[in-house]
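Its record is set out here:
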Amino acid sequence: MLYLANIEFLKLRRDRSFWILTALFASSVTGANYMAAGLAANGPLAGVVDFSFPSAWKVVSFISSFLLVMPCLVIIMHACSEHVYRTHRQNVIDGLSRGQYVTAKLLLVAGLSLFSTLLVVVLAFALGLPGERPVSFAGFEHAGYFFVQATMYISLAFLVALVVKKSALAIGLFCFYAFVIENMLEKYLDKLHHVGQLLPLASSDHLLAPGRLMRIADMGTAWSPPALLLASVVWIGACLLACYYKYKKQDL
C-alpha cells in the first residue's frame, strides 16, 4: 500500500492543477465557515446557527458539505489526464498490475476524503473553542458522516471519470447527475416509502441532519442514521467495485 501511495504522490507532486484545486477547496471551506460564524455572531444568523460545542461538529460539517463538488473535480481531472497522457498504460508496461493501478487511485480517493474530514474537524475546533460552552465530543459523529459523504461523492466522480475519460464531459455528467438527475429521481421515488432517500448521494446527504437544504425543501428525512449509513456504505462499495471491474476489463 505504501509503495502504491508513494507512486501516486510522485505523480501529483508536480501537478499544479491538483494542488491549486485542493488549496482552493480548503480556502473555500474555511472562508464559508468563518463567514457563517461571523453572520451567526453579529448578523442575520444570530440565534439561528450556533458554532459553540457541541453544535460546531454538526454545523461545520453541514456547511462544508456544499463544497464537496471541488474534490470531485480534482479526482476527475487527475483520472482523465492519466488517460489523455497514457500514464495509466505506461504504469502497466512498467510493471504495475491493473489491480495495483486501481488500488493506487482508490487510495487517492480515500486520501482526499480524509483530508476533507480533517479540515472539517480542525475548523470545528477553531470555531467552537471561542464559544461559551466547553469542548464536547457530543455530535462528533457528524464528522464521520461527512467522511462517508465525501467518500461517496469522490468515489462516484472517479467512476464517472473512468468511464467517460474526457474531463470536461465527465465533470458535466457528474454535476448533471448530482444536481439534476438524482434530485428528480429522489422526489419521484420518495412516493414509494421514501425510497429515493436511499439513492447514492441522497443517502449520504441525509446523514448530515437536518439534511441538505436542496433535498429537504419539501420533505424530511424518513430513514434513521444507521439505515442511511448502511445505504451509503453499500453504494460506496458498489462504486469502488465498479471502478475495479471497469479498469480490469477495459482496453488500454
Observations:
- Residues 83 and 230 are 33 Å apart (CA to CA).
